[in-house]
Request: fold
Amino acid sequence: MAIAVKNITKEYKRGKRSFKAVDDVSLGLHPGDFIVIIGKSGSGKSTLLNIIAGLTYPTDGRVEADESNIFTLTDKQISRYRNQTIGYIPQGHSTLADLNVVDNVRLPFHLNGEKRISADKAEELLTRVGIHALAKNFPKHLSGGELKRVAIARALINDPEAIIADEPTSDLDKQTTAEVLTLLRSVAEGGKAVLMVTHDLDAVKYATRSFVMESGVLTEQKKEAVLYV
Reply:
C-alpha cells in the first residue's frame, strides 16, 4: 500500500459552534488505483487532500506512509515526504512564470539539494504527457490543458508512489478534460496510486474506485450506482 488514511477527522470552530470538515475518513491508496472523489464545494475534499499531503494537521487520525504516521515527523521530514513520496497537483495553475516548461518540471527534483542532472528525465516526462515540443516555452504561452500536463509531469519527476490531484480539470473544456483524465488513468496503470478530487461526474468513468464526499463523510460508490451531488 502506498498510503493509508486511518480515521481522519478535521474539526473547525465557527464562532461558538464546531463542525467537521472531514469526518472519520479511512482510505487506502494502492499501486494501480485511480480513485476519484466527487463532491460539491465545501464538502471537505480539498481539506482531505491537504491532510494526506501533510499540509494540514488533522484533529484526529493518522496518515501512514511506509507504516509511519506522517504527523509524527518533523517539518523537514514532512516536506521530504511531500516532495518524494507523493506528487501533488494543486488546484489552479501553479507553474512559475519565470521558468520555462522543462525547468518547471525539474524544480521538485532539486528542492532537497539534489545535484544530479534532471533535464533528460524532465524531457522524457514531457514526451510522455505529449508536450515535449513546448519544453523551452514559458507558461504564459501555454493553454490551460498544456499547463495541466506540465503539472502532471512535474508531479512525476521524483518517481513518487502516489499522485494527488485537486480539481485538475476544473477550468478545462470537455475534450481537454478527457485528455487529462486519460493521462491520469495511464499514470495509475503504470503502477502509481492516483487520488483525484473533483465535482465533475464524468471523471468516474475513468476511475478504478469512486467515492462521494458530503459534509466531510466519504462513501464508496458501487460501479452501477448513479451519483447525485
User: Anything to note?
Assistant: Strands lie at 3-14, 17-29, 34-38, 60-65, 68-69, 86-89, 162-166, 193-198, 209-214, 217-221. The first strand starts at residue 3 and ends at 14. Confidence is low (pLDDT under 50) at residues 225-229. The helical segments are 45-52, 75-84, 101-110, 119-128, 144-156, 174-189.
